[in-house]
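Students often ask what a holo structure prediction actually looks like on paper. The answer is less mysterious than it sounds. You provide the chain, you provide the ligand, and the output is a string of discrete structure tokens encoding the 3D arrangement of the protein together with alpha-D-glucopyranose.
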Amino acid sequence: MAFNEEQFKEILAEFTIGGERLHEIAANFRQDLRLGLRDVTLSSMRMLKSYVGLPSGNEKGDYLALDFGGTNIRVFRIRLEGGGKYEIIKRVGRPLIVPGEYNYISKDATAEQMFDFIAELVDEVIDGDHQTKYYLGHTFSFPSTQDNIYNARLIIWTKEFATQGVEGEIANDLLVAALKRRGAGNVEPVAVLNDTVAVLLSAAYKTPDTFIGSIYATGHNTCYLEPSIHDPNGFGEGGMILNLECGNFSKLAPNRFDKEYDEGSEKPGEQRFEKMVSGRYMGELFGMAIAELLGEKGKQYNLTSVDMSMIMLDDSEKLTKASDIIMAKVGRELDFDDVAKVKKLAETIVIRSARLVAASFVALVWQRAGKGKIVKQHVAVDGSVYEKMPHAKENITKALSELLGEDAANVDTILDNGGSGLGAAIAAAMAKSN
Ligand code: GLC
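The corresponding structure tokens follow.
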């Protein structure tokens, strides 16, 4: 069965965002931001204060860094040398789930079990030394509120975490208790931060003129340095970094696939932007559209963004690899023309995602510039979609120039790989600086 040409064109059109619409979305994002700065309840984003501004680049000393934001926990011992230089002295990492062995993120696991496991990794990175004093920065990438650099309290688990006894608690307090149980009370957590904030700190430490940090991966979120906020409980320069939790931004134009996916999701109405752009969801939208083209609407194929990526990377004459993936996941042998259409559909979904992400960056660039000029600056991004997904990065760049015109020459995106660890060490150093 060949795809219906008309239906295919219509679906592509539904996943296409033209220049004018994109401009509107960027303007809506900025408007939402401005509302939130006035009164956070007016914004669809949480706009959480981080209690840090930018580092000077001269932070020095040995710090521990804990990266806790997904199923892999990583702990580092990092030496900050100042002048934007650093050295990773030791690193350990282990997953929170090993199927059949243990699972610290299920609803059967307790906070004590989870944090005891983390404390064990911290102990490994300090080689069981329970004498030396260590300061630790903690990248905790879940929506949390805080009123100083230490006390982030988990609002709600995201990313399918369900461990009991953590929601509503201060993550660092749970860590301190676990470290004490282990006899490692000499490790003192002094800072906590979201992964977006860590990426921004890490990039700004090495590259001046970086004011926006973003994660574009399984999840999507962005932070930026807001110059107008100064708080006695904050550290660093230039104002305060706000973790937007913009995955929850909702003033955009979802198509019927987005709406249908959201309605059937675990948390309908939540994380609407993230559900249109991030790696966790692109494969779902892709599968829904293919099901419709095959006349089996509603069928689930378990297609992922990695499948999309592999289909798009197939440049062979016969699209054999793409065809094999479709066969394996969808269970149909498609003719060449339809495989090419599936590839085009994947591209269209990724391009939409990249353009929407670019529109949110532009809103932040506008916000920072106010009525003044758009200064030369970098937007630091980490994450697998940005780094590896075909068409993502170049379409961000294209959309930036579409939206910013001549000013686009002043704005570029840079990859900050692994900023979650380095950023945590920098935050710890900033917290200990006075
Ligand atoms: C989710 C989390 C957010 C995090 C992002 C990327 O959106 O709510 O805190 O920054 O994923 O990991």
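The domain at 1-50+197-417 is CATH 3.40.367.20 (Hexokinase; domain 1).
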